[in-house]
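Each record in this resource describes a single protein on a pair of labelled lines. An example record follows, reproduced without changes.
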Amino acid sequence: MVAQIKQWIITRIAVGAFSKRRDVLRFALVRSFWTTIAAVGLNFGVYQLFGRLGFLHVTLPPDPWADTVVTAFVAGPICFLAYYLIGNAIRDLAVSRNAFERLSRTDPLTGLMNRRAFVDVISALNAPYVVAILDIDRFKAINDTYGHAAGDAVLVEVARELRRVLGREAAVARLGGEEFGVILRDRAKDETMVVMDLVRAALATRTFDVDGSEISVTFSAGVSRGDGKTGYSILLTHADKALYFAKASGRNRVVHSDDILAFVSSAEDASGKIAV
């Protein structure tokens, strides 16, 4: 019985049955109504049984209306109060659970999705989409020059700029450190590169005022396209490799995974090796 009650509570929370105060009130009213009806019926039945067995000295049959009114006035408020308290306890549990779930899926610094939420979104997609991995160029130099607090402020500003430029069309996440992830709707490769280059240019032309210091940042990005069938881990690997070559070929640029071979050739021709 305890296991069934626990499962019922979990299920109700999962479907959002106790998300609002009126849900608790509805729960208490409905449950207390049916419990009161059951109490009235049980009370009447007990009077009948015990009276016929001689355990109660009552006139048979007892007055059903008086019995109903008395039982309803006693059982109704008690049941309502009990169910209301139970409903509020379940609602508080739901609120705490939802808050914890949001925290576990949100980057505390920028307010973006974290890596876990980002991977969950990608793994749930079964239609074509585009994924990009962005990495702020020479971020360590910002921390070393201006301090980690300034570095954190830059990350917050970059997150705001990404959300501003990409809008609601894209899902944006901070994957860790100075690395961000973006999920875009499916589009042609050329259009994807135009969109991502607009984002890159928008950030490159911004100057952030951090504690009186003017800080400019750029990012490098790797892009790959998912067909809705290829595993997300493979797509992230492709995007990471494209990011690697964006760094190797000069930073402040966007590389599509389809073009990696061309960048490999140009980088090797220039230096004989690839260094990030």
Q: What stands out?
A: The first helix runs from residue 2 to 14. Strands lie at 129-136, 171-176, 179-185, 207-210, 213-216, 219-226, 254-256. The mean pLDDT is 78.
